[in-house]
Amino acid sequence: EAGVAQSPRYKIIEKRQSVAFWCNPISGHATLYWYQQILGQGPKLLIQFQNNGVVDDSQLPKDRFSAERLKGVDSTLKIQPAKLEDSAVYLCASSPRDSSEETQYFGPGTRLLVL
Amino acid sequence: GENVEQHPSTLSVQEGDSAVIKCTYSDSASNYFPWYKQELGKRPQLIIDIRSNVGEKKDQRIAVTLNKTAKHFSLHITETQPEDSAVYFCAAIGTGNQFYFGTGTSLTVIP
After folding, report:
1. Is the N end or the C end of chain A the one with fewer CB atoms within 10 Å?
2. What does the pLDDT profile of chain B (111 residues) look like in tens digits?
3. What letters, b where the CB count within 10 A reaches 16 and e where it falls short, cover A21-41?
């Protein structure tokens, strides 16, 4: 089966600019996650969707980050405006059902560098 | 919320030796504990997981043990090979189905 797709793979922007990432989960997967992975650290959950509804966004910096999953399939994560500390890899993952006790399949990630 | 601690942060072993990575968690309601392997520049990939109703699970050279009373779980890799070199992350599912990852262990297997 096709894996989780993400684009772009790399992005370099200047601070205060805006950026958007796109994720296409595995077909049929109900749950979609966005993670931020700073170099040398474990992934940190930013937001979790079940179909097109938000399950958890408690760790999403809502003053600058936003995410949506229209139609319950693809998702976009936006940062506006970006800060230097947003430099990280943004990972998207999906799982088949509505429980977190399911294997998460990760995409290749988008590596963001904010200058 | 859940707090997952992982030790050691780096680990070097000789090829053929065993490697053990330990994680502790704080939320007694956590009931699912996956382990991920992440090679440099690649995505995390699930290598083994365990649920709270099981104390141990094994898959070839990899095993995971869970002690719910002490709130810790461990990854055991036997007969290590150079291709086992990677960063390993533990995770725990806390209250509200949130995924919490440990800080990672960089494993180096020396040929």
Report:
1. N
2. 678 999 999 999 999 999 999 999 998 888 889 999 999 888 899 999 998 888 999 999 999 999 999 999 999 999 999 999 999 999 998 766 677 889 999 999 999
3. bebbbbeebbbbbbbbbeeee
Q: Shortest CA distance to A50 belongs to which of B79, B64, B96? A: B96
How far is the C-alpha of A7 from the C-alpha of A22, rounded, in Å? 5
Residue B20 is encoded by which pair of tokens?
């053990």
CB contact, 8 Å: A40 with chain B? Answer: yes
- The CA-atom distances, in angstroms, between A72 and each of A37, A102, B4 are 24, 18, 30
Contacts of A41 in chain B (CB under 8 A): 103-104
Task: Determine, for residues A106 and B49 on separate chains, whether the beta-carbon distance falls below 8 Å.
Answer: no
Nearest to B108 by CA among B40, B23, B24: B40
pLDDT tens, position by position, A73-111: 999 999 999 999 999 999 999 988 665 556 788 999 999
Whole-angstrom Cα distance, residue A96 to residue A104? 8
